[in-house]
Amino acid sequence: MSGLDSKKVARNSFMLIARMFVTMGISFYSSRIVLQALGVVDYGINNVVGGIISMLSFLNTSMITSVQRFLNYSLGEHDSVKTNQIFVTSLNVHLALAVIIVLVAETIGLYFLNTGLEIPDERLLAANVIYQFSIVIAIVNVLSIPYKALIVAHERMSVYAYEAVFQSVAVLIISLVILNAETDRLILYVFLLMLVNILIRIFDGWYCSREFGEKYKFYVNKSVLKELLSFSWWNTLSNSAFFIYTQGSVFLLNIFFGPAVNAAFALSNQVNLSLATFNSNFVMAVKPQIVKTYAMRQFEDMRSLLVYTLKISCVILGVISMPFMIRTDYILGLWLENVPEYTGEFLNLALWLTMIYSFSDPITSAIQATGKIKKYNLSESFALLLILPLTYVLLLFGTEPYGVYYVRLVVFFVFLFVRFYFLHRLLGFSFCLFSIGVLLRIMVSVFIVYLMLLQINAFLPDGFIGFLLLCFISFVLNVMVSLFVAFDKSEQRNIISTLSMQLLRFRKK
Questions:
Q1: Using an 8 Å Cβ cutoff, are 258 and 41 in contact?
Q2: What is the model's pLDDT at position 278?
Q3: What is the DSSP letter of 121?
Q4: Residue 336: exposure state from Cβ atoms within 10 A (0-12, 13-18, ≥19)
Q5: Cα distances (angstroms) measured from residue 53 to each of 50, 108, 252, 425, 460
Q6: E-strand stretches of 214-314
Q7: Which of 314, 310, 325, 335 is nearest to 272 (CA)?
Q8: Helix/strand/coil (H/E/C) assignment for every residue in 51-70
């Protein structure tokens, strides 16, 4: 991969993954305290109220992808003027988007909160108060997007990492504060979260102004605006479908089972997201290079980088997820004093889904680099929109709450082959390479390791020592088995050669 800045990719990957070791530990401890302070019902209310805001902000997610893609592309072309035009135009677009979110949130969203959700009468006032704070958080996050996109496009991952650590520590402090608070703890919790988000937004603006000279101006470049909106429109379809099925599942669980199951669902998602973020941080470090190699027409480098990214991301997920899959009850018992019913089942299925979904982000980044996303996003939207009605039917037939994941697993696995088809059609990448040389190899590797760990776990002691041993064995087996099963011979040689060179450099130091 000669055209790539492989050192920068490796450095940024290490920085982001190291960040996660810190933030994940803090996050787990914080959520334990928050659950203890709020109780199961208030914890579930916070989750479902946040779901409304997330649904209202789906347009924002579309703009994130669009701004990130165009900034990466312009930096790959070394066009500083175009980069400035994209940044300033996107800022004004996000300002308009913030106004739209407020209008919809204070009308449709507020009506749904008070009439469509299962919230105890005595907590309805608190739910309305935190809803207003959540709207402020959503607006602050909307206005932060162009700044964060610029930081990532310049590959300043250390800033991104330090900011996340600060946020995690702040949330930990907040959780300790509300644990001993005599006022309404749910309201205080969300209010303090709002203040933290505002501080981070102020820092992002200051940093981008100092480092890149980018400041707010009331200016919109019409050609850039047209490109951004055209690109984001098709992303809006798939992102809206994504939020419909994810937040729709939250609402369905609330309607069928109540806030307690929402709490179990939220807790399992928190663990799953924390583990999955190890992988997403690695992918985040690679994504700018994927787009930049396309902009520089280095297609072979792009293909190689994509294949390595897919395989390595699955190894990372396997190392981290499998001990949690095998000792779910122990981890949840260690983390929480009172584990809500169904949390373990939710978590196990969510981890398997994450293994499948890990293919999505790198492949989507490669397809978006081409700018030809209409048919891809239409196909993805159709697949995602199938999930919610099928889930509703399952729940009507009396399936357990964790049945929401069954449909997701099937749909996402089948859609992998649609993703491979678009890679072939838009970039000329071999369908067989990705379906057999990547997916099949990874599946065989994952199942071999998982079955071996299940057998080995039976001979390991209970408790913390046993879990640590399982984690170590998971690391060794995932690395060794994937090296000889998931990677082909040429990839094996490249990996061994790269590791050998790094060891020699380390010894010289």
A1: no
A2: 64
A3: G
A4: middle
A5: 5, 11, 16, 36, 45
A6: none
A7: 325
A8: HHHHHHCHHHHHHHHHHHHH
- Under 8 Å CB-to-CB from 286, ≥6 apart: which residues? 9, 13, 305, 309, 362
b/e for 22-53, b at 16 or more Cβ within 10 A? ebbebbbbbbbbbbebbebbbbbbbbbbbbbb
| Cβ-based burial of 406 (10 A; exposed 0-12, middle 13-18, buried ≥19) | middle
The encoded tokens of residue 482 equal 């994937």
Residue with tokens 């060179």: 501
> Can you tell me the distance from the alpha carbon of 339 to that of 273, in angstroms, rounded to the nearest whole number?
18
Judge residue 253's burial from the number of C-beta atoms within 10 Å of its C-beta, 0-12 exposed, 13-18 middle, 19 or more buried.
Answer: buried
Please give the C-alpha separations between residue 394 and each of 59, 236, 244, 266, in angstroms, as whole numbers: 29, 27, 17, 20
pLDDT > 50? residue 461: yes
C-alpha to C-alpha distance for 264 and 420, rounded to whole angstroms? 34
CA distance 482 to 456: 18
Lowest mean pLDDT among 5-14, 368-377, 496-505: 5-14
SS3 of 338, please? coil
Distance, in Å, from the CA atom of 31 to the CA atom of 136, rounded to the nearest integer, reads: 22
Distance of CA 386 to the CA centre of its chain: 21
424's tokens:
């072939």
Helical pair 360-370 and 404-427, crossing angle rounded to 10 deg? 30
Helix axes 299-326, 343-357, angle to 10 degrees: 160
pLDDT at residue 271 tops 60: yes
Q: Give the HSE-up count for residue 54: Cα atoms under 13 Å, Cβ half-sphere.
A: 18
Report the C-alpha gap between 438 and 423 in whole angstroms.
Answer: 13
Give the Cα separation of 349 and 123 in Å (integer): 31
The tens digit of pLDDT for each residue in 64-90 reads: 777 877 887 777 777 777 788 888 888
- Does the structure show a pLDDT above 50 at 394? yes
Confidence at residue 277, expressed as pLDDT on a 0 to 100 scale:
65
- Cβ–Cβ < 8 Å for 236, 59: yes
Q: What is the pLDDT of residue 150?
A: 84
**Two structure tokens written together for 444:** 């065989």
Helical segments of 428-462, H only? 431-432, 441-457
Which residues lie closer than 8 Å to 381 by C-beta, 6 or more apart? 237, 238, 240, 241
Neighbours of 467 (CB within 10 A): 20
* 494: exposed, middle or buried (Cβ count in 10 Å: 0-12, 13-18, 19+): middle
CA distance 391 to 16: 35
At which residue do the structure tokens 């299940």 appear?
454
Return the sign of the alpha-carbon dihedral for residues 238, 241, 245, 247: positive
